[in-house]
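Please, structure for the following, as tokens.
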Amino acid sequence: MTEPTEPGTRRSMEEKFPRALWVRLIIYVAVGHLFAAFIYLLFTLGAQNQ
């Protein structure tokens, strides 16, 4: 059961954004980091072959 909130109170971040948005954000950040690591690996391997 949820209690009504007063207009002046701050809500937590989970109440402002849906759970699916947080999951999507975490997936995008993880995939972005994996892509950046792959590009970094390509550049380091390419530099070693010169």
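Residues 5 and 11 are 8 Å apart (CA to CA). Helices lie at 13-16, 19-48.
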